[in-house]
Design the sequence.
């Protein structure tokens, strides 16, 4: 959070009328003391006597700015500047108003005018830096913060803003030095502790970040942003109940859409879906275009199986930056128009699992008469190149002439799909035949009489719910006792190291060093009888290949697995094993173990 300097006060030249002078003095004294209603009455009376009094216009504008009446403030200050264009403080304050109205270019012009009149104006330099930083010009912002501090080394806001800009550039040690300097000048600065917490979090030092956020809250119990950032951090670490508590305090102090959505998400992560919904509805009542509220509400509705409203909400999920990152300039986004003979670009989005799940729609669109090109992540190109109905697949920036483009995960809303009409014909992805044959040869005949089962126990640790969607290989150790099963590790990433201490049955067939791509994994999967996995991209890949999958789900499972079903309308060969209590895998492991025994009979 950047800190703009407070509006500046100068001593305007007063008319000789003693009463007017007394009014202005009384207004400024009341204003400085925070008695805004009293100050307003004095300003109004002064302007009744002299409507061209620049000081009264300027500071009455400041008063409106402080109340959030920015348009009125802009009008008053602009009138003052027309009468006196040499008031640096008024120019700087007019810049604050422009920034508050979202007019950053105008704000910078105002700050520049102030600095031309007073080059050592510390607050104007600081505010100029804030405007530059808001546009991503961090190096230029840093220059202005340093100029502000050269003029006024005690300007705490400039130290804080300098730290924030350095943090954005990943210059973490320098940022922390700024915050420590602020605390040396003002040990009670909640803002410095809060900003230090953000820097520690960016460094991955969660313990220090939590301590800093807690210190900020000890100094200012109603610090909504600190409650939110602390809640988000401990939520990512799996403490959803603790996150809920902090989000509730943030909402109590600032019931803005962002805080409402955070609170709803923490409640939903604990499985209280009915309670969750109300917070998204409240957020949308405040801001009908708030993308995060639409997305979270969509996930909730889809999880309940309400595909009609769920897909409609999901179509409104876009933050501007996310949409702009995949949109195809100059091409109309497809919303369900006739496709016969039209060239359509299907653009992948989000993670690999999402790609694997939604690639099925390429052939659906081709069946509707479209000439379908795919733009997906490079790692998927070999696999998607074998899909039916694809004209061309590539990665990177879209090229070629198209009639329409559509984000892959928006297709269901365009087709008005519900649970009964989901296209679930598998396989729609196909492994490379030569690689599949090579794996068959490599596996040999040693386990020919056994059931070959692939195993994935963990996903990416950067995923928000990874603490709960992943398990450990030690938790799954009862599987190793199943008779007539040959286990094949499909686990990549840091969790693969768990194999070193695993039962011999799990270690016997570890070919993961040769799994260098999804192509390799797909070919190996085609030589297996079953894949048992937590909710990862490999589970989707196996499902899309038409292989049987047993999916292990946490109690706060993702929207796509619905609420209570043991099957999936997306993958006919998939069986779902669900936790009853979040974090408790033991009953799930027991259920799968019994299922393995039954299959062996």
Sequence:
């Amino acid at each position: 959070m950047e800190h703009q300097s407070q509006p500046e006060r100068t001593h305007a030249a007063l008319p000789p009328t003693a009463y007017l002078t007394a009014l202005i003095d009384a207004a400024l004294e009341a204003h400085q003391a925070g008695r805004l209603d009293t100050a307003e009455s004095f300003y109004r009376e002064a302007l009744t006597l002299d409507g061209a009094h620049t000081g009264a216009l300027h500071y009455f504008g400041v008063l409106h700015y402080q109340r959030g009446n920015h348009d009125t403030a802009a009008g008053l200050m602009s009138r003052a500047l027309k009468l006196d264009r040499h008031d640096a403080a008024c120019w700087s304050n007019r810049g604050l108003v422009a920034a508050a109205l979202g007019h950053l270019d105008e704000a910078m012009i105002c700050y520049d005018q102030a600095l031309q009149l007073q080059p050592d104006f510390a607050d104007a330099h600081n505010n100029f830096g804030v405007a530059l930083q808001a546009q991503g010009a961090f190096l230029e912002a840093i220059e202005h913060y340093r100029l502000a501090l050269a003029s006024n080394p005690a300007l705490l806001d400039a130290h804080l803003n300098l730290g924030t800009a350095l943090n954005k550039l990943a210059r973490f040690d320098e940022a922390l030095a700024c915050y420590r300097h602020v605390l040396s000048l003002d040990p009670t600065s909640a803002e410095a502790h809060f900003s230090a917490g953000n820097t520690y979090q960016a460094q991955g030092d969660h313990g220090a970040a939590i301590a800093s956020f807690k210190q900020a809250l000890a100094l200012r119990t109603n610090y909504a942003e600190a409650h939110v950032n602390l809640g988000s951090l401990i939520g990512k670490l799996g403490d959803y109940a603790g996150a809920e508590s902090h989000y509730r305090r943030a909402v109590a102090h600032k019931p803005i859409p962002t805080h409402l959505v955070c609170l709803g998400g923490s409640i939903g992560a604990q499985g209280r879906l009915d309670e969750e919904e109300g917070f998204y509805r409240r957020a949308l009542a405040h801001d009908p275009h708030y993308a995060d509220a639409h997305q979270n509400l969509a996930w909730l509705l889809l999880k309940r199986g309400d595909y009609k409203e769920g897909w409609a909400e999901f179509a409104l999920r876009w933050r501007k930056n996310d949409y702009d990152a995949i949109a195809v300039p100059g091409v109309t986004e497809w919303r369900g128009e006739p496709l016969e003979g039209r060239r359509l670009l299907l653009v992948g989005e989000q993670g690999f699992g999402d790609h694997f799940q939604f690639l099925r729609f390429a052939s659906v669109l081709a069946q509707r008469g479209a000439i379908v090109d795919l733009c997906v992540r490079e790692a998927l190109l070999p696999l998607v190149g074998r899909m039916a109905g694809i004209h061309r697949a590539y990665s990177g920036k879209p090229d070629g002439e198209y009639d329409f483009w559509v984000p892959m995960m928006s297709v269901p809303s365009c087709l008005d799909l519900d649970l009964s009409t989901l296209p679930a014909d598998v396989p729609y992805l196909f492994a490379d035949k030569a690689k599949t044959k090579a794996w068959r040869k490599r596996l040999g005949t040693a386990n020919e009489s056994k059931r070959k089962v692939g195993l994935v126990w963990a996903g990416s640790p950067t995923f928000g719910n990874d603490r709960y969607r992943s398990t450990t290989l030690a938790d799954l150790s009862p599987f190793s006792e199943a008779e007539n099963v040959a286990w094949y590790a499909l686990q990549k990433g840091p969790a693969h190291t768990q194999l070193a201490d695993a039962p011999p049955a799990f270690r016997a067939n570890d070919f993961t060093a040769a799994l260098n791509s999804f192509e390799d994994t797909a070919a190996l999967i085609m030589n297996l009888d079953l894949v048992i996995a937590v909710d990862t991209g490999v589970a989707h890949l196996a499902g899309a290949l038409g292989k049987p999958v047993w999916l292990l789900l946490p109690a706060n499972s993702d929207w796509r697995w619905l609420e209570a079903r043991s099957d999936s309308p997306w993958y006919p060969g998939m069986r779902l094993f669900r936790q009853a209590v979040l974090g408790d895998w033991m009953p799930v492991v027991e259920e799968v173990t019994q299922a393995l025994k039954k299959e062996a009979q």
Remarks:
- Residues 433-600 form a domain with the Rossmann fold fold (CATH 3.40.50.2000).
